[in-house]
Specification:
The chain has 417 residues and is mainly α. The protein is built from 19 helices and four strands.
Length: 417
């Protein structure tokens, strides 16, 4: 009797769990959307944002000589101009990171690209060196938002399985800038144009600066075609908006209906700060201070200082060198018959120009060697190939191992040269 009763109890229908009420972590939810068409379009848009950063910051180095002939600035003023964009990035980088975390990645990107477009456009019609310096500085201030937001935006649309590779692939657009800038310079700078519009000489170097705005314009349009980071929205308590974005991404990537996306409840450990909750400048400054101070707690201070130093060293070697690269290559080509080193060539060009006025130098067609831009163009393709190789192997080697090997190799190269 008891055994038959037990058998009847086993046949009772078990309670089913409603799968739509199962909570998922954000990492699990982003894994479910798969990687597909949306992510490749996101890579293109954010890559154009990064390309616009590179063209705006590095573009002035390529037109420094013709601009000097037009605006008649001294060697000291030339150095200030070369550093204007980098100075703007340095001043605003912390604020841009704060805005990205509180205002939104996409909102910050759209606003800063638009502002940088305006200031860069004004700088291209500068009538004197200080006008050019101020607006290149402001361009650096605003374009810094691209560098602060693009990697976060890309990374937060990926799971840990694909995040590193796609973030690395965004960096492919850095050498794309080294291809784009000198590629245009080869065709534009030799042009014999001297048209005056509204009292401003429309010379080839100004036209090249106008062309440098094209990546920013494309990036701005692209930013209105992608959604905000769902992780950021989730951190702001906008759960339903975050889930809806993930559903759309899932549908785009898989071709399945949005309602088949399994994650309806998503949890996130860390909750972000929202500017809408801040009343007054004092509260905003206090929030910035709290976020900054958290980087220098006992547990994080060493890592923070270490990362700052590494970033400083990389930018000093990479961006700092590229700023003077056109000048270095031009000098090496001009004095190629003397087999000089880089430092010797800089000294030689100083000696050869010390007895000539700026007017005499500018009037000499040999002073601007177009071949230097061709070398930069080829180097850009080499860098692009190298960056693609890194994006391919980084998941296999690991970030730290690959970084240390590359840095060690660069040190060996510097010792040889």
């Amino acid at each position: 009797m008891c055994s038959s009763k037990l058998a009847m109890d086993n046949k009772k229908p078990q309670e089913t769990v409603d799968k739509s009420l199962i909570p998922y972590t954000y990492e699990e939810a982003i894994e479910k959307v798969k990687v597909g068409k949306f992510h490749y379009f996101l890579l293109l848009v954010t890559g154009m944002c990064f390309l616009s950063f590179i063209t705006e910051i590095s573009g002035l180095g390529l037109i420094m000589f013709p601009a000097k002939c037009d605006l008649q600035f001294s060697l000291t003023e030339q150095g200030l101009l070369g550093s204007a964009g980098f100075l703007g990035v340095t001043v605003s980088a912390h604020v841009m990171g704060f805005l990205a975390d509180t205002w939104g990645r996409l909102r910050t990107l759209r606003t800063m690209i638009l502002l940088s477009l305006c200031t860069s456009l004004i700088s291209s019609v500068s009538t004197n060196v200080w006008m050019l310096f101020v607006f290149r500085f402001l361009t650096g201030v605003f374009i810094s938002g691209c560098q602060s937001c693009v990697f976060s935006l890309v990374g937060e649309f990926h799971s840990s399985r694909t995040r590193v590779r796609h973030v690395t692939m965004v960096s492919l657009f850095l050498p794309a800038g080294l291809i784009y800038l000198p590629g245009l310079a080869v065709f534009i700078l030799p042009l014999n144009i001297e048209t005056t519009i509204l009292g401003i000489k429309l010379l080839p170097w100004r036209i090249l600066m106008f062309c440098n705005l094209i990546p920013s314009l494309i990036a701005l349009i692209g930013c209105f075609m992608i959604p905000e980071s769902p992780k950021f929205l989730l951190s702001q308590g906008r759960h339903d908006e975050s889930v809806e974005i993930l559903r759309k991404v899932y549908a785009t990537n898989t071709g399945n209906p949005k309602n088949t996306y399994p994650c309806n409840i998503i949890t996130l450990k860390d909750v972000g700060s929202n500017l809408s909750n801040i009343k007054g400048l004092g509260n905003a400054v206090n929030l910035v201070w709290m976020q900054t101070a958290s980087l220098f707690t006992k547990e994080r201070a060493v890592q923070t200082v270490n990362m700052c130093f590494i970033t400083f060293a990389i930018n000093l070697i990479a961006q700092g060198t590229f700023l003077y690269f056109p000048i270095i290559i031009n000098n090496l080509i001009t004095f190629s018959d003397q087999s000089l080193s880089v430092c010797q060539s800089m000294g030689a060009v100083h000696q050869s120009t010390s007895n000539r006025t700026l007017e005499e130098i500018c009037a000499d067609p040999a002073s601007l060697n177009i071949q230097q831009y061709e070398f930069l163009f080829y180097m850009g393709w080499c860098f692009a190939s190298f960056y693609y190789f890194i994006s391919t192997v980084i998941n296999m080697t690991g970030k730290k191992t690959l970084f240390s090997k590359i840095f060690e190799y660069n040190i060996d190269i510097c010792n040889i040269s």
